[in-house]
Write a structure and sequence with these properties.
The protein is an alpha/beta fold and about 200 residues long. The chain contains eight helices and seven strands. Helix 8 links the parallel strand 3 and strand 4.
């Protein structure tokens, strides 16, 4: 999902409410858990309460939230037990977004409120690999933020960056950068191994 507009709207609103520069918030917010952003920028606030408030508002703010071009087609080419979603958002926010997009619920869903360390720490992606029962080195991460790229690489995974939230030049730490998910082709070989090609 491309929820950049909603995310930025809600972070700007929050920043104005507590009296901090919204640009400072937006510099670090994308790809990170709300909990960590609040703790970093407003350490005197009740971070857990702010997460509930912020993510509830974000889940309700659907204006401009779009399905990434090629997303539905991509997940339909991969057997359901071979892919998952690893997000910095809470389970409430993630399931709200999936429902809005009419995308299939993944069998594996790792949410920011279900890990001890968020991205850029490797824990979220390593947990996803464990739940998929796949060696991390055999995993491929698709990310749209530097924190997620760092998380995937820290877990020993290859990363394709999607230039949506950030411009291509800000995603150069990824193994490849694409502009559209339709650039990824997945094939299942006779031994049930997946191969991925970036076009």
């Amino acid at each position: 999902m491309d929820s950049t507009r909603s995310v930025e709207r809600q972070w700007r609103l929050w920043a104005a409410e507590i009296g901090i520069d919204p640009e400072r918030v937006l510099e670090i917010a994308h790809g990170r858990r709300t909990l960590e952003v609040v703790k970093l920028l407003a350490p005197d606030m009740d971070a857990e309460a702010e997460v509930v408030r912020l993510e509830a508002r974000e889940a309700e703010d659907t204006d401009g939230v779009l399905v990434m071009p090629g997303a539905a087609e991509l997940v339909m080419t991969i057997p359901s037990e071979r892919w998952g979603v690893v997000t910095s958002g809470t389970r409430h926010l993630a399931t709200s977004r999936l429902k809005l997009a009419k995308l299939p619920n993944p069998k594996i869903l790792v949410c920011g409120d279900e890990v001890f360390h968020g991205k850029p720490h490797p824990e979220p992606y390593l947990k996803g690999a464990r739940m998929l029962n796949v060696d991390p080195q055999e995993c491929l991460v698709i990310e749209d933020a530097p924190a997620g790229i760092a998380s995937g690489h820290a877990g020993g995974m290859r990363v394709i960056a999607l230039a949506s939230t950030y411009a291509s030049q800000e995603l150069q730490d990824a193994d490849a950068v694409i502009l559209d998910l339709s650039q990824i082709a997945v094939r299942l070989d006779p031994d049930f191994r997946l191969s991925v090609r970036v076009e």
